[in-house]
Amino acid sequence: MEVKQFIDNIRFDDKGLVAAVAQDYKTNEVLMVAYMNKESVEITLNEKRACYFSRSRNCLWRKGDTSGHVQHLKGMYYDCDGDAILMKVEQTGAACHTGAYSCFFNKVYEDGVTDQSVINKVYNQIINRRDNPQEGSYTNYLFDKGLDKILKKVGEETSEVIIGAKNKNKEELVYEMCDLVYHSLVLMVNEGVTIDDLKKELTKRHK
Questions:
Q1: Region labeled Phosphoribosyl-AMP cyclohydrolase — which residues (predicted)?
Q2: What range defines the domain where residue 156 resides?
């Protein structure tokens, strides 16, 4: 569909705006809701990077201009009434200004919901800590100390996993395995290895 045809199908409100939902294209997790006008829609489609309209500042803003947390466009859709836009994006770092990966972290009610994206959340939070250091952050401490320190922790946590398994203590084993996963993710970020890299390798092994 051409950009003009797409825009003609959108029902902008009396201020020339339409609600836009950003969703992680890999996990389908809803990241944020903002507003777009015709110009920001055009920019987003032409640059393949999310651009919104700030109602408080009354101007366009490209996601990530100041934070570096860019949203690369993977898909754009509109709903049946044409009054809302859905964007599937590749999120760099955190979507929320608080540092959380998604703006929707305040849980009100939950029944039987299984979070399939927790590894991605932790991975992206580690990237956020690397790119936006916080005083007192253990993750930043590991990055500051460098590769040798990270490798030492991976080795230590591997030993703890072995001990937990030998002790036949499930609670201890789960705890130590989570420590190992976390430090392994820190190593991945430090060395430029992505979760997609692991998925591709695992997929090749199980064809």
A1: 1-118
A2: 118-205
Number of Cβ within 10 Å of residue 107's Cβ equals 7
Burial 33-46 (b: 16+ CB within 10 A, else e): ebbbbbebbbbbbe
pLDDT digits 0-9 by tens, 57-79: 999 999 999 888 999 999 999 99
Number of other residues whose CB lies within 10 A of the CB of residue 154? 16
- 101 belongs to a structural domain: no
Question: What dihedral angle (degrees, nearest 10) is formed by the CA atoms of 84, 32, 64, 57?
Answer: 70
Report pLDDT digits (tens) over 2-57.
888 889 999 999 999 999 999 999 888 899 999 999 999 999 999 999 999 999 99
Same domain flag for 7 and 87: yes
